[in-house]
Design a protein that fits this description.
Two copies of one chain form a homodimer.
Chain A lengths: L1 H10 L8 H26 L8 H16 L4 E5 L7 E6 L6 E8 L19 E3 L9 E2 L13 E3 L7 H16 L6 E8 L9 H7 L8 E4 L11 E3 L1 E2 L1 E10 L5 E2 H4 L6 H12 L20 H9 L4 H8 L11 H4 L4 E10 L8 E2 L2 E10 L5 H14 L2 E4 L5 H6 L2 E7 L6 E2 L5 H14 L3 E3 L11 H4 L4 E3 L15 E3 H15 L10
Parallel strand pairs in A: 3-7, 3-8, 8-20, 9-19, 16-17
Antiparallel strand pairs in A: 1-2, 2-7, 4-5, 4-6, 6-21, 10-18, 11-15, 11-17, 12-14, 13-15
Helix pairs in contact in A: 2-4, 2-15, 4-15, 13-15
Chain lengths: ~500, ~500
C-alpha cells in the first residue's frame, strides 16, 4: 500500500522526496490506528459546543488541551472574561528558525435538533454514506479493521471544525512516533468563538501578540473544492457594517391627512440607498475604491487557473444577470462590494397601515478589498450621507437635534476589519503550496474568498501572513443540520497537516 | 330659552326665518326628551358592533331599522352575502321634488377592552367630563331634568357613528311631532362595514343604484373643528394602493461569497422607489398629475378662509420641514400624493443576517385628486416601472418568467376609487351650507379632506353629489379606547340634521 501510493505520487509528478515522507508516515500511522483516532474524535464531538453555554465550552477547551497535551504540546487556556477560553499550545523544535501557527476552532454553530436525521447532534453516528444517498448507520470499525473512505461521521462540528483538531493531534503523534524530523516550531491557537464572529479575538491577539507570532498562520477551516481537489486560500475580504436609520416625525402620522405635506423617511432612505450604488453594482460613494490593491501577476495566474464555474453557478442559484462586468467571480471577490442586507419601514402586505412611518432603517454590509481601511470606508459613506443633505448622528436624535435639522440619519457602525490577502509569491506561501501539493497533488490557489473571517485581524495585530488550509468535504452541511465529515477527508487532512508540520525550513530545502 | 336662542341667532346674523324654525323645534323637543333620547342611545350602544361578528351586526342593523321605523321611515335591510346588512330607509314627502340621502354607519372600530377606563366599551357610561380632566361616572339625568352639555357618554361608537343615527331619528321625530313641513323626500343608508373599508359598498350601490339616488348625499360622519366650529367637507381624495415586490434569486444567497456578483433586489427596489418621487415630494411618474382639476374660485376662497394652523400643527407633529412648497395644508390635500407605507427586505438590527435577500417589497398608497382616475394612475406607475427596466407581472414569477427577464417586479393592485369633490357653488351645496349655518352659525368649508372614504364611490355609481356633515366633538377618541360623545355635540347634531331635513327646496326659498 505504501509503495503503491509512492508510485502514484511519482506518476502525478509530485516529488517523493523529503516532503512526501511525512505524508506517507501519517498515512501509515492512520491506517493502523483508525479506530483509536475515531474514538478520540467521537469523544470530542460528544461535548456540546454551542458557544452560548460557557460551561460546556470550557469542557471542550479542556478536552482540546488534553488532546494536544497527550502529543507533547505545552498548552494553556487564554482567558477572556465572559467568553469561552482559547486553547494555546506550543511544540518547540530545538534549532528551528521558523514557527508555524495552526488555527482551528472548537465551537459549533447552534443546532436545530429536530432537523437531524441522527436525532442528537452531539451523539456522533457513523454512516455508510450520505444520508440523502441512502447512507445507513453503521458501527465504528473494529480495531485493526479498515474503514471505507466513503463513510461519514455525522455530528455537530464533525467537519467545522473539530476534525481539524483531531487531524492536528494525529499528525503530530505520527510524526513524533516515527521520528520524522521537524524544522519549524509549532504553535496552536484553537478558539471557541468562531461561529459567534470571534468578538474577542482581536483583544486576545493584542494581549498575546508576541506569543502568537509566527512565520505563517495556517487557518485550518473551510472546505475543499466541490470536485474534491485541494484548495489553498490566501485571503478573505474585510468587513464593515453599518445601520442607517432615517427619521421622520416622532410618531407615525395618518397618511391620508398629511400625505403630500409630511415627509416620508422611507422615501428619503430609498433615495439615499439609490444614491449609494448604481444599477450595475458600482458603488457611487466618492473614494470608495481608492487604494484597492491591484492583483499581482501570480494572483492573476492563480485566478486564470481556477476552473470556470460561473455560468453553471449562476444557473444553479437562479441568477438572471450578474454584476461585476466581465470579471469572473474569483476576481470579483478580490474587489470590494456593498450590499443591503435588510430594509425595514412601516409594514407591507396584510400588515400595511395607512400611516407615514416615523423612521426607516437599512442594514448595509461592505466587503473590503485589500488596500482599503474599514474605518475610512465607513467615514466615506458617512460623508456621502452628509452630502445628500442629512445630519448624521450616532444616537437616537433628541428633540434638540430634531428641531435643528431637516433630514436626520443615524449611523450605527459595527466593528470591522480589513481584508487579508497573503501574496502568493511570498517565500512562505510558496513553501505552504509545495508542502500541500506534496500531500495532495496540484492545488487550486484562491487569492481571496468573497466572505470575511474575523481572525483576519491577526495580520494587523500579530503581523503574520496567513493561509487557509481546508480539509472538510464540500458537502459537509456546515452550520446546518446533519453536518458530517467524509472519512477520506479526515484521513487526507491528517496527511496535509503532517506535510505542513514537517515542511522544510526554506523552499530550496524541498528540492 | 327658546327666545334667547332666537335672539342669539339674530345677533350672529343668522336669519331666524324659515330655516331656524326646524332648529328651534328640534332644540325644544330635545330639551323635553333628553332622558328618552339617551335611553334609546344607550340601548343602541349596548349592542356590540365589531364588524367581524355578523350575528351582532345583524342585531345592530335590526335595531337601527326599528329606531327609524318608529319615526315612520319605511326600512329594509340590503343584504350582501357574508357581510353585515345595510339599513335602507325612505321617508317620502308628498309633493317634494328633491331627495336627500342621509348616510351613517352602525359598525364600530374593533375594541381593545383593557384600555377602557369604563371597563366594557359596550356598557355606556355617562361621565361628568373628559376622564383625562377629572370626569367621573354619573347616572343618567332623571326624566325632565336637564343635562349638562359638557357631560360625555363613553362607549364604542358613541361618536363614530351611532350618535348620528340617534340624532337622525330624534330630528325626524321632532319635526313630525311639531308638524314642521318638509320639502324633501328623505332616504337613509346606514352601513355596517365602514371601519372595514366598506368592501361591499360599491356592489351594493350598483345593485340599488336608482333607489339610492338623491339630490345630495349627506355623509354624517367625522368631527367638527377642534375649536368647536361646525365644518362642512365637500370632498375626499381618491385612493389607489399597490404593492411592489422585486425579485432576486429564488433563495437568499450568502452575501460574502456573492457580494459584487449577485444582484440585490433591495437595491433595485430602492432605486425604483427613488425614481418615483423627488426630495421635494414631487411624483416623477410621467403623467401622474395629468388631469388634476384646478380649484374653483369658491374653493380657493373657502381655503383662504380656513384658519391657518399649519405652523402650529407642524410643530405639534414634530415636522421639521414639509413638502408641498408654499401651499397650505388645506390646499395640499386637494392635490395628489404618493407615499411609501412600508418597505421590507431581509432583516435589520439584531436580526440582520449576512445574506442577499431574495425579494424586496414596498407598499405604496396614492391619494388621488379630483380629475384623476385610479386605474390610469396605477397604469402610469406600472409604465414607469417598465421604463426602469423591469418586467412587470401580477403573479409570483415562475421559473420561465425568471429565466426570461433580468429585473422582475410583481405589482399587486388594491381596489381603488376616485376622488370626490362636490363643487361649493352647486345649488345643492349652497342650500346645505345655508341650512347648516342657520343651525350652527358660520361654518368652515373644506373643499377636500386629505384622506379617502370608500363611500366616495357613490358619486361614480349613484351620481349624486355628497357633503360630509360631522357632528362629533374633535376629541372623541374615535377608533381608540375611551371613545365618547360630548352631549352638546349630540344636541347640536340633532339641530343640524333637523335643519337639513327641513331645508327649503331651493336656496331662494330660504330668504
Amino acid at each position: 500500500m505504501r509503495l503503491a501510493v509512492a508510485a502514484l505520487l511519482a506518476t502525478l509528478g509530485v516529488g517523493a522526496g523529503a516532503t512526501s515522507e511525512p505524508v506517507l508516515t501519517a498515512r501509515d500511522w492512520r491506517e493502523t490506528h483508525e479506530r483509536a483516532i475515531l474514538d478520540e474524535f467521537v469523544e470530542l464531538l460528544r461535548i456540546p459546543n454551542d458557544g452560548r453555554d460557557l460551561v460546556s465550552m470550557r469542557r471542550n477547551a479542556e478536552a482540546v488541551a488534553r488532546l494536544l497535551g497527550r502529543r507533547g504540546v505545552q498548552t494553556k487556556l487564554l482567558e477572556t472574561s465572559g467568553a469561552p477560553p482559547s486553547v494555546y499550545g506550543e511544540f518547540p523544535v530545538p534549532g528551528a528558525k521558523h514557527t508555524l501557527v495552526f488555527y482551528a476552532h472548537y465551537d459549533g454553530y447552534p443546532v436545530e435538533q429536530r432537523h437531524w436525521y441522527t436525532g442528537d447532534p452531539f451523539r456522533p453516528v457513523l454512516m455508510s454514506g450520505r444520508v440523502e444517498e441512502g447512507g445507513q448507520p453503521i458501527p465504528l470499525p473494529r480495531p485493526g479493521w479498515p474503514s471505507d473512505p466513503a463513510w461519514r461521521l455525522y455530528a455537530r462540528s464533525a467537519a467545522d471544525n473539530k476534525a481539524v483538531i483531531v487531524a492536528m493531534a494525529t499528525a503530530l503523534e505520527a510524526l513524533r512516533a516515527r521520528k520524522v524530523p521537524l524544522q519549524s516550531n509549532l504553535k496552536f491557537f484553537i478558539e471557541g468563538e468562531n461561529e459567534a464572529g470571534s468578538p474577542h479575538v482581536a483583544a486576545l491577539l493584542k494581549a498575546h501578540r508576541s506569543t502568537l507570532r509566527g512565520d505563517a498562520w495556517l487557518l485550518c477551516d473551510g472546505r475543499v473544492h466541490p470536485s474534491g481537489q485541494q484548495q489553498l486560500i490566501f485571503g478573505v475580504r474585510g468587513f464593515a457594517g453599518l445601520e442607517l436609520t432615517v427619521f421622520g416625525a416622532p410618531a407615525e402620522l395618518p397618511e391620508g391627512r398629511y400625505g403630500g405635506w409630511a415627509p416620508n423617511p422611507a422615501q428619503q432612505l430609498s433615495r439615499l440607498l439609490a444614491s449609494i450604488k448604481d444599477d450595475s453594482g458600482r458603488v457611487l460613494v466618492e473614494g470608495f475604491y481608492d487604494g484597492v490593491a491591484p492583483l499581482s501577476d501570480s494572483e492573476k495566474q492563480a485566478i486564470a487557473a481556477i476552473p470556470d464555474n460561473d455560468g453553471a453557478l449562476a444557473r444553479q442559484l437562479g441568477l438572471r444577470f450578474t454584476e461585476g462586468g466581465k470579471l469572473r467571480l474569483p476576481e470579483i471577490v478580490t474587489q470590494p462590494s456593498l450590499n443591503i442586507l435588510g430594509v425595514s419601514a412601516g409594514a407591507v402586505g396584510a400588515d400595511a397601515r395607512e400611516v407615514i412611518p416615523s423612521s426607516a432603517t437599512a442594514s448595509l454590509i461592505i466587503r473590503l478589498a485589500k488596500g482599503m481601511d474599514h474605518r475610512n470606508t465607513i467615514d466615506r459613506i458617512v460623508e456621502h450621507i452628509r452630502k445628500n443633505g442629512f445630519f448624521v448622528t450616532e444616537e437616537e436624535p433628541g428633540d434638540d437635534v430634531r428641531a435643528a435639522h431637516e433630514k436626520i440619519c443615524r449611523v450605527v457602525r459595527q466593528p470591522g476589519y480589513n481584508a487579508m490577502r497573503t501574496p502568493l509569491d511570498l517565500e512562505i506561501s510558496k513553501r505552504v503550496i509545495a508542502a500541500v501539493e506534496a500531500a495532495r497533488g496540484p492545488v487550486i490557489k484562491i487569492p481571496s474568498l468573497g466572505g470575511s473571517l474575523p481572525i483576519a485581524v491577526l495580520q494587523d495585530i500579530v503581523r503574520s501572513p496567513a493561509v487557509i488550509v481546508p480539509i472538510a468535504n464540500d458537502d459537509n452541511n456546515h452550520r446546518a443540520a446533519n453536518e458530517n465529515i467524509r472519512l477520506q477527508n479526515l484521513w487526507e487532512g491528517i496527511e496535509t497537516i503532517a506535510a505542513l508540520m514537517a515542511m522544510p525550513a526554506s523552499e530550496s530545502g524541498s528540492d
